[in-house]
Structure formats: structure tokens, C-alpha cells
Design goal:
The structure is a homodimer of 380-residue chains. The first copy, chain A, is α/β, with parallel strands linked by helices. Chain A is 43% helix and 16% strand. A 7-stranded mixed β-sheet of chain A has the order 2-10-9-8-5-3-4, with helices on both faces. A 3-stranded antiparallel β-sheet of chain A has the order 11-14-13, with helices on one face. In chain A, strand 6 and strand 7 form a beta hairpin.
């Protein structure tokens, strides 16, 4: 009878409407019926991406969409800026290196955001830079980067701005067009409340010029083929039909709530979680630039972080995430992204208090929950 | 109240067990619970592939797995044989060309199988050939190629044998190890009775040697990364969790029936469909090498093939496939692959008879159904 709670930064819980859509009998993709669905999905994605650009749906995880960005924009020997302040920023460097693209790496301490001025300096110093690869929310640290500020710099340069919004899209604000984001990539299993298996990528007119010149080999992720198909409301290869049908359901939910309200809900959950951490005497990991989709906190001294996460999951059914890379057992992460609301947060915090207390951490049981409730009950 | 019948060569209908699994709440992929599922899926895939090699699960459609084969085995400037006797054979050439790989193209008339002797001649004439790209069932024509015969030739050469078994795996016999297939790729939406969104690829020891030397750029489809992860019962990137959970259900069904019985069921459906075509006075398209998974027949003179397919779908709820490429309106294809049995075939044939008759084709209503029933009732 025990219920399960999933507060991880991907996958996130599925709404019942999405589960229902996933379980429907399948339909063929080359039918007017599926064409209507594809059209609806594309329109909904443009709403969530806040863009007039085409948004392509790939049958891949988010990393596939990241590779699509690199392979379609650049050629071997080109130079791009990557920003390493966590595991997913490092992924941009790795993909670029796989394709023989030179990377000017901006190193950022894990837990901190990139300085837009640093990007400006690099772009001015090296006019050969063709692309700036950024991360909206660095899931591994909980940090959100100021993409709006970066966009203001990159728009006036020869380079295109590429944003990994896998973590964050549909949960925190990302104004693709107004912020001059040339390419935005995302995935299905985060703010969009779906299982993993879909990648998304939007392409601006400035980016299309690079696509025309790109010489990196590609076939499955070839955006020119995707564009040709999309113009006929089709896909170049068999699409992930059930996931796209379910996508229409989650897009409908986001549209009904309205993006602004969705962002406010996430902000409130983040504020409540942060307040609870402080009330429990825990130190936030990304204090200066904490995102509204995942809160990272330091594991208190003397507590086994991995055991704590495991006990919450195996004994109480509450799955949160540990750290990644060198922070594996030193931080833990509570995601509040997608189909998550107040009740999930409160129960997760109550469980965290209990487990920490059982493990010997001195805590006033209820202190974290109380602090969170105060935020949820406030009108700001 | 009208029921829908899907007799297309991908996607194929989903068993209720699969639909149910797809609709379950999601679980996190970095848990012991999902690890057990991944292990079960990998074991089941080795049973269906009839191999001791590792079978990797990709979050992509079958084409992604095809690209993985090319990008992991070869380097720009290498030479490979491709066989063009249909749309999917041509896809191998296209992918190779995207990666700067030279192709020795064996042209085969659409509707016919490749001659193993032709491959032998080419391999002997050019010792630089590193890979032979073949197609088990050429879905666009309904032809099945004699992979066993090709394997006997390629095994004694320096080249590796790569088989596109997207259409056919889990429905017709393909003995990966006994037939010396070095790399076999497949997809989820055909014989495996799942929605599209998973690609599969098996790799033999002979093929791994090429993987070590390959210089094609790749990241998402990098098999060395996939192998490193698989050895820890993990995936390098977020897997398509729900599809893999559903895969365990369909693999269980295939195992319970036993591959041999599954193949017999498909053979009987193919024989019945072919007998019906003849009884209806229709000419089979791939007469000499027709597969057991899809039957292609010529549209009779004076009949609008596209309208026929459309009427069956829109008026009677029976979806079959038209032709592809230059045969778009000249042939039609009835798939009997995956979760399809006698009742589906009989109803499809009855519907086909009715629509053809309404369109002015002279036919004894019931003749096709009778011929099919005779096959289904026979004990051979």
C-alpha cells in the first residue's frame, strides 16, 4: 500500500492524463489523425519555448538533441565556448570534442553561475567563436544561469547562443525569442512531465545560416531533413508516436495553467524548500543562483549522504537525488519540477527530517515543514 | 464503436499487457528496481536475437541504431557494400555517404532478393571492403533476404556483416550467432510489439575490433560508452524508461510462446495472405522471396491504389500500407507482424475484397477469405 514519491530532476512524476495517453492503442504515424497531433504538439512546443522558430521533435533523450545542436551548427576545426560548472556543462565540451570542435572552456566553480561578462570577454578576444553553449539549469548543482544576460551579449556577435534547457523548460522562464536564444534544446522527462524518450530543438534564422554551412556528419539528427519533413507536418523517421500523443496532454495542462502560473508554482516550491533547509540547519549548495526546479543542499557533517538518500527511498518511498561527480555523497538534491505540488514537498521534507534525525542529526522535528508551510501560506 | 485494425509494417498493434505497462507511474532509472528491469530486457533481447553478444538498447528509432552501426564500425574513407533493392537498403547507402564512407552499391530490382554470390564476387574483388550492410526484410517490397547464405560468405572475409533486422526480428528467423551476423540492428515497433522509440544493436567480437579503430565522430550513439555502462547494468544517458519496462512484457510473451512457434504463426499468416491474394486474382509483388512479415501485391489495373488504402482505413477502420518510392500507388502491403493473428487477417481480407469490389474490380466475394481459411485450417 505504500505510495511512491518521485522528487528527482528527471524523470519527474507523470500526470494521470499522461499515463492514460501512453496506454492507448497505437495509431499509424502517416495518417491525418497523427498529423493533427503533430501539429498540435508543434504549436504547444512553440508556446512553451516562447518562440516563433520551428521546434523539432526527436526520438531521443535530451543528449541526442544536444548532439543535434553541435553536429548541425558546426564543422570540425570550428571554435565554440563551453561553460563547465557542472556535469551538463561538461557534456557540451565532450560532444564538441567528439566532433573535432575546439572549445574555449570557461571554468565555473560548481554551485555558481557563469558571469556574462566572462563570455563577453572571450567573444571579443576571439572573433572565430561560432557558438556559445550554455545550460539553463545545471541539474548537477541546482544552479540557474542568467541566460537573458548572456543573450544580450551574444546577439551582437557573430556567434549563436545555444541553451541546454533540458532541465527547466516548462518550469522556469526561458524566453527563446526575447532573450535571443538561437538554439534551445530540451527533453521530455523534466518540466514537460513525460517519460524520457523525446528530445526537442528550436532553431533561429541566425542559426539556420550555420546549419547550411555545417560539415559535421549526421543523418538521424540532420535538421535539414527534419525541416523538410516538418514543412509537410511529418517526421523524417518513425516518430515516438505514443510519447508525442502524451506530449499533447502535458502541453494542454501547461497551457491551461498558463506559463506564468506554472513558473510561480515552481518558485513557491523552491522558496519553501530553501526555507525548510535553513530551518533544518542545512546549508544550501547553490546559494547565490539557486534554480526554482531543483534545490541542492550540503549533507551535514557526520551523515552518510548516500545512505540518507537510500533510506528515504527504500524505507519511506521518497526518491530524491544524491550528488553527481565529485559531490556524489556531499550534496543531495530535491527536485520540484513538473507534476509536483505542495503536498509532495511537505511529505518529502517530513521524511527528510525523520531520516536525518534517525541518523543522529540534531533537529527539531517539524521545523522544516513549518518553514515550508509558512511560504506556501504566504501571498507573495 | 468501430474497432481499428492496424496491419502496417510498423508500428504494429500493441498487446494489452504492453499498453498497461506503458501507462504505469514512472520510476527512476538509477535504482535497483530499474536495474533488474534492464537486466531482464537485455537477457530477453539476447534470446530474441539468438546471440551471446551484448545487445544495446538505444533511445531512438531503428534508423538511429543503423547510424550507430555505421558510425561505430567505420571511418571516413573506408569502403562498404550496400544493397539497394528497396527504401531501407538505400538508407544504408545514405548513412554511409553522410559519414564519407565509400559505398560499393549492389543494385537489386525492387521485389527481388540479393544474390549471395554477387556479394562474394565484390568482396573477393575488393579486399578493402570493411562491412557489408544488408536488410533482413526489405519492408518497402516485402522481400526477405537470405542472410544465412550471406553470412557464410562474409564470415571468411575481412569484412563484418551488418543486418538491418528492424523489420522481422522476433517474427521471422534470424540466428545472429549461427549465421555469423556481426552487427544486428532492430527497432521496437515491429516484431517486438512496442511503440516506436527504442533501437537495438548487437555487436560480435569481430565487430568490436572495428569499433576500436573507428574514427567517425559520435557521442549519443557511442557504443564504447554504451558497453561501459552496460557492464554496470546501466545506460550512458537517460533511457526511455517506460518503453523498456513495456519491452520486458513483450519479451515475456515471445518467450512464453517460444520463438519457433512465433515464427510458425507468422509463416501461416503469410501463407494465408498469399493464398488469398491469388484467389482474388491479385499478383504478388515479391513472388520469389516474399517475407513472412509483410505481403506486397500489385494494385490491379484500373484501380486507384491510394484511394483503396484510404477507403479501407477511413471507411472500415483497417489500416494497411501503400507502396513506397516509385511504387507508391502501384503496390499495397499487408503486414502480419507482431501482435496479429488469424482473426485480423481474415477481417482485413474480407474488407479488401469488399473495397476492391466497390471500386469495380471483378471478384467473387469470399474467395480470398476462403483460401486463407483453408491455410489456417491445415495442419502443415
Amino acid at each position: 500500500m505504500r505510495k511512491s514519491y518521485l522528487l528527482t530532476p528527471g524523470p519527474t512524476p507523470l500526470p494521470p492524463q499522461v499515463c492514460e495517453a501512453l496506454g492507448r492503442p497505437i495509431i499509424h504515424h502517416r495518417t491525418p489523425q497523427f498529423q493533427a497531433i503533430l501539429k498540435e504538439a508543434n504549436e504547444g512546443l512553440r508556446y512553451v519555448f516562447q518562440t516563433k522558430n520551428d521546434v523539432f521533435i526527436l526520438a531521443s533523450s535530451g543528449t541526442g538533441a544536444m548532439e543535434a545542436a553541435v553536429a548541425n551548427l558546426l564543422s570540425a576545426g570550428d571554435t565554440a565556448i563551453t561553460i563547465q560548472g557542472g556535469k551538463f556543462g561538461e557534456r557540451w565540451t565532450e560532444i564538441c570534442n567528439s566532433y573535432g570542435i575546439n572549445t574555449e572552456i570557461i571554468e565555473v566553480q560548481w554551485g555558481e553561475a557563469v558571469e556574462a561578462r566572462e563570455i563577453e570577454k572571450r567573444i571579443k578576444a576571439n572573433p572565430k567563436i561560432k557558438a556559445v553553449f550554455t545550460t539553463l539549469c545545471e541539474t548537477s548543482t541546482g544552479v540557474v544561469n542568467d541566460i537573458e544576460a548572456v543573450g544580450k551579449i551574444v546577439r551582437n556577435s557573430q556567434a549563436v547562443l545555444v541553451v541546454d534547457a533540458i532541465s527547466g523548460l516548462g518550469a522556469i522562464d526561458l524566453q527563446t525569442d526575447s532573450w535571443f536564444c538561437d538554439v534551445v534544446v530540451s527533453g521530455s522527462q523534466k518540466g514537460l512531465m513525460l517519460p524520457p524518450g523525446l528530445g526537442f530543438i528550436s532553431v533561429s534564422p541566425k542559426a539556420w545560416k550555420l546549419v547550411q554551412d555545417s560539415k559535421c556528419p549526421k543523418y538521424y539528427f540532420d535538421l535539414k531533413a527534419a525541416k523538410k519533413a516538418l514543412d509537410k507536418t511529418d517526421t523524417p523517421f518513425t516518430p515516438a508516436i505514443t510519447l508525442i500523443i502524451a506530449l499533447c496532454e502535458s502541453l494542454k495542462m501547461l497551457k491551461e495553467d498558463g506559463l506564468e502560473n506554472v513558473f510561480l508554482r515552481h518558485k513557491k516550491m523552491a522558496d519553501a524548500t530553501k526555507a525548510a533547509m535553513k530551518a533544518m540547519g542545512l546549508e544550501l549548495f547553490a546559494a547565490s543562483a539557486a534554480s526554482d526546479v531543483v534545490t541542492a543542499a550540503k549533507v551535514p557533517q557526520g551523515i552518510d549522504g548516500e545512505k540518507m538518500v537510500k533510506t528515504m527511498r527504500d524505507t519511506y518511498g521518497v526518491t530524491i537525488a544524491g550528488g553527481q561527480g565529485e559531490f556524489k555523497s556531499r550534496i543531495f538534491r530535491i527536485a520540484h519540477m513538473g507534476y509536483i505540488e505542495k503536498s509532495d514537498i511537505i511529505f518529502c521534507l517530513a521524511c527528510l527530517e525523520k531520516v536525518l534525525s534517525q541518523m543522529g542529526y540534531k533537529i527539531n522535528l517539524g521545523a522544516g515543514v513549518k518553514a515550508a508551510e509558512e511560504i506556501f501560506n504566504s501571498h507573495t
